[in-house]
Each structure stands twice: as C-alpha cells, then as structure tokens.
Design brief:
The protein is an alpha/beta fold and 314 residues long. It has helices spanning 3-9, 27-34, 49-58, 76-82, 128-134, 137-148, 153-166, 172-186, 198-209, 211-225, 239-252, 266-272, 288-293, and strands at residues 17-20, 41-46, 66-70, 88-94, 226-236, 277-279, 301-307. It has a seven-stranded mixed sheet, with helices on both faces. The chain is globular, with a radius of gyration of 22 Å.
Length: 314
C-alpha cells in the first residue's frame, strides 16, 4: 500500500543503507532494491517467520545486498549493530497486518473461521485464545476501549467473560459472534458498514502483539540511526498508530528551549535547541484507484520526516 509513494519518499541514494522494518511479502523491499547500486544495502525485518522464510527463498538469492532478519523492529538498533551497521539512510515502516496474515489459520480475520491466534510471531508469546481464558473483565474492557476505541467495550467484555464460563473461546468466529450479538443489539437504529467485530479484533491484536509499544521504541531508535538527510517513512492504518507517529514527528521537529538557570556553554545551548527531524510535506493517503483495487488501503496514512544535520563550531 502506498508502495511507490513510500519508496519515492525515501529519496533513495543508490549507494545508501536502508531498512524495511516490515518486510511482509517484500513489496517495498523489491522496489528499494531496484533503486540501489551494488554498493547499496537493504536490511529487512519481520517478526513473522513465514514472511522471512518466503523472502529468503523468493528474493534474497538474487539480491546479495539484501539481509532479512526474523526479529521485532523494536530491536532495530541492537540487531543492526550485530551485523556492523551503525547508521542508515532511510527506514520504511508499513504497519498493521499483511494480506497473508489474513488467512484463516492465523486467527486475525473475523470473516473466516480459524484458531484464535493473532500472533504476528507464532514462535513465541501467548495466543489471543490463551489470553482470553484468563484476562479479567476489567482488563479486557480497558484493552477493547483503549486499543479498539470501542464504545461498547464494557458490554463486550462482559459478554466474553460470560461466554467463556460456558465454553472456551478458541476460534475466530466464536469471538466474532459474541461481539456481533452485543454490538448489533445496541446499534439497531444505526447503519454501519463496518463489521461489528472490527474494533474488538483490532484491540486484541494490538495488545497481543504489543504494537504500540513496538512502534514507540522503533521511532526513537530510527532517529538515532538516521544519517543527516535520511528519511523516516511510516504508513499507519488506524488512528492510534497515526496519532503516535504524528506527535512523535512534530515533537522531534520542534526546537526545545533551555530552562532558566541551567548552566550551559554556548555550544551546548545551541545543541539543546536543535530539532532532530524536519517533517516532509503533509500526510499522504491512497488515491481512488488504489482504494478501488484494494479496499484495505482506504485507511492508510503515510507520514515522512527527514533527519536534520546538526553542526556545531567550538
């Protein structure tokens, strides 16, 4: 999604070093590689082992300047240092879930029946079904309200707890039907094209994968890793992610002021007030053609920022 827009926004330097933090099925990586010279380098991350294995078979053999790592992007700086990379010229993050993850057996979709898993990294961690077995009603309501922005979070949490007392909730359709019964009962007078389980599934997925925590960590590390002029490109798919990215970029683009009474040399004072990023353009959304071809893209928002070169004279 926003494939060409995102790679164009990176402003690729042929000999540069770039990171695709969300490899997926390699869409952005393929286009980045096509713009790199033999001296250029791309390091791709994905926590989904299936995506990593597919990339190593389909893309890596013909691209010796590509490295694909099975890793959460919150470990970006640590993993790059392991392979001798201290600085990069750009990073793209395409958040959310990829199309292959919507297959029934992954447990993300409320449209097809499958095991209630929802883990992006199936090699570790608790499944959604396991979490729902033990979570308290209070904590469940909080997750659904905060991560799903669901107005009926309390009623949904209560219904889930009551349902699990009768039978374990282990499939996607079981959960979707419980949620739908609550939401439809409360929205009889409101017409909504959105599936009633959408917000609850989103909330549980975000919690299980710690998506907002991961995003917060990778944003901070990206700024530290970027060379002057390097670009940070982020594509978000819901308001929680986009709000975090927007606020982060704006904060990093502001000039801080030094509190009165703090004893600093002039060079330190100038550095304290130096912004780290420059926001590039406005938020970009998919065009009508892309939305028509892929309905999932309609909620995508892309934001871009550039690392500022800081120079001091002693």
């Amino acid at each position: 999604m926003l494939l060409h827009e995102a790679v164009d926004a990176l402003s690729i330097r042929p000999d540069g070093v770039y990171v695709d933090g969300t490899f997926g099925r390699g869409g952005h990586s393929r286009l980045i590689l096509s713009r790199l010279s033999e001296k250029g380098r791309l390091i791709a991350f994905d926590r989904d082992l299936a995506a990593v294995e597919a990339g190593k078979i389909d893309l890596a053999p013909s691209n010796p300047n590509l490295s694909i790592l099975h890793c959460h992007f919150s470990r970006l700086q640590q993993e790059l240092l392991k392979i001798g990379v201290c600085k990069i010229d750009g990073i793209v993050l395409d958040l959310g879930i990829s199309s292959p993850q919507l297959e029934a057996e992954r447990g993300f979709s409320f449209l097809a029946n499958g095991p209630l898993d929802m883990r992006m990294d199936t090699s570790r961690g608790q499944t959604a079904a396991q979490w729902l077995e033990t979570v308290s009603e209070i904590d469940l309501e909080r997750v659904i309200r905060e991560y799903g922005e669901e107005r009926y979070a309390g009623s949904i949490a209560r219904a889930i707890v009551m349902a699990r007392a009768r039978q374990s909730i282990v499939t996607t359709l079981q959960l979707a039907e419980i949620v739908a019964a609550v939401v439809r009962a409360r929205e009889r007078k409101r017409e909504s094209k959105q599936n009633p389980a959408t917000r609850t599934f989103q909330a549980i997925r975000i919690f299980i994968n710690q998506e907002l925590e991961e995003l917060s960590l990778v944003l901070q590390q990206s700024v530290a890793l970027l060379n002057p002029g390097g670009r940070l490109v982020v594509i978000s798919f819901h308001s929680l992610e986009d709000r975090m990215v927007k606020r982060f970029m704006r904060a990093a683009a502001k000039t801080d002021t030094v509190p009165r009474g703090i004893p600093l040399r002039e060079v330190e004072r100038r550095r304290f007030g130096q912004p780290l990023l420059k926001v590039i353009g406005k938020a970009v959304r998919p065009g009508e053609r892309e939305v028509a071809e892929n309905k999932r893209s309609r909620s995508a928002v892309m934001r871009v920022a550039e690392r500022i070169d800081f120079k001091t004279t002693v």
